[in-house]
Amino acid sequence: MSRSCDFLVWGGGLAALLLARELRPARVRVFAGHHPPPASAVAAGILNPITGPRLTPVADFAAYRAGAVRVCADLHRPGEAPLLRDTTLRRYLRGGEEAGRLERRLREEAAAPFLEGPFPPGDAGPPVRDPHGSFRIHGAARVDTARLLTRLRRELADSLEERTVDPATCARTSVGFRAGGWEAPVVVFAEGIAGRANPWLRPLPLRSLRGETLRLRCPQLPDPGEVLQFGGKWLLPEGGGLFRFGATYERREGDDPRTTPAPTPAARKQLLATWREWMGETAPSPEVLAQEVGTRPASPDHRPYCGPLPGEPGSFVLNGLGSRGALHGPRLAQRLAAHLRRGEALPAECLPGRAEGRGSGAAAGL
Ligand SMILES: Cc1cc2nc3c(=O)[nH]c(=O)nc-3n(C[C@H](O)[C@H](O)[C@H](O)COP(=O)(O)OP(=O)(O)OC[C@H]3O[C@@H](n4cnc5c(N)ncnc54)[C@H](O)[C@@H]3O)c2cc1C
């Protein structure tokens, strides 16, 4: 005999837990597994308004940032470090081509308010060398995603089942769906890269983008007081001579998405080579304290999937958060919950049916 609830949610990362929190006080049951470990726990948590080699302004950045600010403020406990901190990013130019791109972006309405610079070579000072100069990105923030996950798990404790439930065992019934001993009219699949093996998500291509990072100790390195970006990598100062440095970006289609990825010597080598290239051979060598790995679940067009599964009434997805789960996760969870509970519209650019040109189905009516 199955127990009944309003929503069954799959996943133990930011997508599922943020959504479950937004769905309450409805009766939610979350299957929150640990294998593979959530990418959310490895993320740098940077909310960055200007990204990538083309210095692209992120669409609707202010609204997404506000979503993250709201949930981090709600979950903050007095006396504890904030879950979200404002920061600036200092980005080091690679050469003349990138400098030209910066000049163009400085003239664009969508990008200019976030940009300061360019600063001439030598302005940044140590530790990173800046022969082509640098610039600054304003309006960014850092979310402590590992602590955010812990807070969410604690808050949702009475709705969570810390186990893996194979979505292939999810069956339709007269009232909706049954799985893992529960029955509900609505299911939401939000299980990150493991979604690649989920038969319900077969029409949605998900790509595996593996990212590896290092935890470093380097007391000789001055604390820059902001996030540094050089050579396509970020350096996060953590205080007390500790840093996080990452991340690699590797497409791994052959991996079984349900297994736990292991850190690789190649990624460590690549990261340390970037460190030496940008800091110089005489720069202090960091002590590697840990190497961490996670898999970003990405859609081919790099837009998240948030909404109803085409042709499967009552089933929904929140996945494909790619490299921006900390930025997009909170607001998309808020939007999906508002859709499921009150029938509010979903962001059209994130609808799972977009490839086929299909729109959102009716809300679940709860
Ligand atoms: C190195 C790295 C750096 C990053 N940096 C940033 C950044 O700076 N800014 C940013 O915005 N984003 C960043 N990201 C991206 C962000 O981490 C991801 O977009 C986000 O974490 C994806 O969240 P998710 O909940 O979809 O998946 P995950 O966090 O991977 O969570 C999925 C969870 O579901 C569980 N699960 C899977 N299958 C089942 C099942 N059948 N039953 C029960 N549970 C199941 C898994 O065990 C896992 O716990 C980074 C990612 C990486 C890897």
Secondary-structure map with pairings?
Layout: E1 3-4, E2 7-10, H1 14-23, E3 28-31, E4 46-47, E5 50-51, E6 56-57, H2 61-75, E7 84-92, H3 96-105, E8 115-119, E9 134-143, H4 145-155, E10 160-161, E11 171-172, E12 177-179, E13 182-184, E14 186-189, E15 207-217, E16 227-230, E17 233-239, E18 242-246, E19 250-251, H5 265-279, E20 287-298, E21 305-308, E22 315-319, H6 325-342
Parallel strand pairs: 1-13, 2-3, 2-14, 3-10, 7-16, 14-22
Antiparallel strand pairs: 4-9, 5-6, 7-9, 8-9, 11-12, 12-13, 15-18, 15-19, 15-20, 16-17, 17-18, 21-22
Helix pairs in contact: 1-4, 1-6, 2-6
The structure holds flavin-adenine dinucleotide.
Flavin-adenine dinucleotide binds at residues 10-16, 31-36, 38-40, 42-46, 164-167, 191-194, 211, 213, 246-247, 294, 296-297, 319, 321-327.
What does this structure look like?
The chain is α/β, with parallel strands linked by helices. Among the domains are: 3-41 and 147-206 and 300-356, 3-Layer(bba) Sandwich (FAD/NAD(P)-binding domain), CATH 3.50.50.60; 207-298, D-Amino Acid Oxidase, Chain A, domain 2 (2-Layer Sandwich). The protein has 6 helices and 22 strands. The protein has helices at 14-23, 61-75, 96-105, 145-155, 265-279, 325-342, and strands spanning 3-4, 7-10, 28-31, 46-47, 50-51, 56-57, 84-92, 115-119, 134-143, 160-161, 171-172, 177-179, 182-184, 186-189, 207-217, 227-230, 233-239, 242-246, 250-251, 287-298, 305-308, 315-319. The strands form 4 sheets. Strands 4, 7, 8, 9, 15, 16, 17, 18, 19 and 20 form a 10-stranded mixed beta sheet that branches. It has a 6-stranded mixed beta sheet with strand order 10-3-2-14-22-21, with helices on one face. Strands 1-13-12-11 form a 4-stranded mixed beta sheet, with no helix packed on it. Strand 21 and strand 22 form a beta hairpin. Helix 1 (14-23) packs across helix 4 (145-155), helix 1 (14-23) packs parallel to helix 6 (325-342) and helix 2 packs across helix 6. The radius of gyration is 21 Å and the shape is globular. Flavin-adenine dinucleotide (FAD) binds next to helix 1, strand 15, strand 20 and helix 6.
